[in-house]
Amino acid sequence: MATVDLAVRNARILDGTGAAIIEGDVEITAGRISSVGRPSGAAATVEIDAGAMVLTPGFIDVHTHDDGALLRHPGLEFKVSQGCTSLVIGNCGFSAAPALIGATDHTKLLGTTANWTDLAGYAAAVQAARPACNAMALVGHNTIRHLVVGLERREPTPAELDQMRSHVRAAMAQGACGLSTGLIYEPGRYSSTAEIIALAREAAEAGGLYTTHLRNEGDRLLEAVEEALRIGREAGLPVQISHHKAAGRQNWGKVAASLALMDRANSEGLDVMADVYPYTAGSGPMAQYFNLDRLDPALAEVIRFASCPARRELEGRLCVDVAGEWGVVPVEVIRQVLSAPRGTETICIQFLIDEADIETNLRHPLMMVGSDGIPDLRGQPHPRLFGTFPRVLGRYVRERGVLALGEAVRRMTSLSCDRFGLVDRGRVVEGGWADLVLLDETTVIDRATYDDPKQESFGIGLVTINGVVAYRDGVHQPVRAGRMLRHGRS
Ligand code: ZN
Ligand code: CU
After folding, report:
1. 143 and 261 share a domain?
2. CA 295 from chain center: how many Å?
3. Distance 5 CA to ligand 2 centre (A)
4. 154 Cα to the center of ligand 2, angstroms
5. Of the candidates 365, 366, 137, 354, which has an alpha carbon nearest to the alpha carbon of residue 255?
6. Is the pLDDT confidence value at 323 over 80?
7. Which of 19, 288, 331, 460 is placed for a possible disulfide with 295 were both Cys, Cβ 3.0 to 4.6 Å?
8. Closest ligand to residue 373's CA
9. How crowded is residue 329: how many other Cβ atoms within 10 Å of its Cβ?
């Protein structure tokens, strides 16, 4: 009789497809699921009784900035403790591959500098670091443009555009799942739609997708969605709208119109989906949101400092509170922080999103979950880094009934895997890779808050990654069996 490495007995299984719960055992052999339902009869090296918990596929965090964390924090405790087993990296146009030059806002956001020159080199570095989670890479437009054109505000020359295209082509050949943009950021914001289309065509050629942090998420949200849809149509590839939101009180509610635009595009034959994080604040490099020549007073009012190497004592504090203490207006605090040495490395949190819009987003059947967490553990990061997935399951599924558990799990697992080309993952099915989670749906909840953001979640009992126990009863295992994944390959 074949040997079984690990068995989870008497489980209530949500298989990730949205199907109803079935009861049975799941057995794992050599990293893969070897049986589901009736036990094979073989004894397993490790036997785990599921108790009252639900067994699901491991969650896919489709929107991360963990390119550097895979190397610097390979235990990835903040992800594993949420039940995340695979991470999509390289989002918002910022990817560690093909390469990073100098110390810029990009390298700060990603928390790494590069000693590789392509995705294969980066992937080798990740493998050597033995991360806990699997990772799938997007190649980032900001990264590529920075390499080829620098931070100049101009069109690329035809030769430069060719060079940028060849970077995309190479990354796709080395396993990337698509092209990401961050069109509010420098230097992505200097790009024309035509430039993005030209690059997206290279991703399309290789069967990849286009993910985008839209050019505008506020007053011009709908125009920005139209641009993304046009890129999808003209380049001929699926479109993923990242962290879908309507920023700024005057825009609250607009996500409904934006989702309607996506629905219409889908009905016309384009393939558009989106992801969301379950919080009313965003977070990112502060220097990118403010122009020192005309600082935005309304934005300064809603800022909280996450990471601030220039003034560590401000981390975790609201800008308005600091302003009160200093006896100045909030923009003056922003000015002083940004002008200080290392001030441009500040990561801020900005409260700009409507709670009702989060629910509208989560109700949409094509809405995935992506944390957008920024893994700077030295500061006081946005709580989404530690809490996103349990928060959806606890707050939005159990407490508020916005979506059903099986549907939430489907959109954290099979839908995400199909979308980003993670093959043989995201379903509890025989032959699939054994990335699994046991969770208590009656208690699962995030514990990370803005005041105390580095708190692991509650109610995740077990996480296996590639058949190996990564987390059990609140304890991280030092095995770290994650892998760098290649688009469309098992
Ligand atoms: Zn973004
Ligand atoms: Cu992002």
Report:
1. yes
2. 29
3. 37
4. 24
5. 354
6. yes
7. 331
8. 2
9. 17
**What is the distance in A from the centroid of ligand 2 to the CA of 65?**
6
Q: Give the closest residue to 257 by CA, choosing from 110, 342, 364, 344.
A: 364
Closest ligand relative to 63 C-alpha: 2
Residue 327, CA atoms < 13 Å, CB-side half-sphere:
0
pLDDT category of residue 2 using cuts at 50, 70 and 90: low
- CB count within 10 Å of CB 474 equals 11
Which residue is it, tokens 């009992």? 461
109 pLDDT higher than 90:
no
90 token code pair: 């390289």
- Ligand nearest the Cα of residue 372 is 2
Q: Which ligand is nearest to the CA of 288?
A: 1
User: Per the domain annotation, does 481 fall within a domain?
Assistant: no
3 CB-side CA count, 13 A: 5
User: Residue 66 C-alpha to ligand 2 middle, in angstroms?
Assistant: 10
Q: Are residues 382 and 461 in the same domain?
A: no
- In this structure, is residue 322 part of a structural domain? yes
Q: Does the pLDDT at position 104 exceed 80?
A: no
**Which residues, 6+ apart, have CB-to-CB distance to 25 below 8 Å?**
7, 8, 9, 10, 11, 35, 36, 37, 38, 39
* Tokens read off for 255: 């996500």
462 and 385 in one domain?
A: no
The Å distance, Cα 276 to ligand 2 centre, comes to 10
In terms of domains, do 240 and 223 share one? yes
Q: Which two tokens stand for residue 465?
A: 């990654």
Q: Distance between terminal CA atoms of the chain?
A: 26
Of 482, 485, 490, the closest CA to residue 70 belongs to 482
Give the DSSP H or E segment for 229.
Answer: helix 221-235
List, for residues 447-479, the tens digit of each pLDDT value.
Answer: 999 999 999 999 999 999 999 999 999 999 999
The domain in which residue 433 lies consists of: 3-57+427-444+456-476
pTM over 0.90: yes
Nearest 10 degrees: CA dihedral of 287, 290, 293, 298?
A: -150
CATH number of the domain to which 7 belongs: 2.30.40.10
**75 lies in the same domain as 155:** yes
The CATH number linked to 209 is 3.20.20.140
Residues measured by CB to lie within 5 Å of ligand 1, the ion: 92, 213
Residue 179 and residue 129 share a domain: yes
* Paired tokens of 341: 């040495």
Q: Are residues 249 and 342 in the same domain?
A: no
Compute the half-sphere exposure of residue 398: CA atoms within 13 Å on the CB side of its CA: 16
Ligand approaching nearest to the C-alpha of 213? 1
Residue 114 inside a domain? The answer is yes
- Calculate how far, in angstroms, residue 162's C-alpha sits from the geometric centre of ligand 2: 26
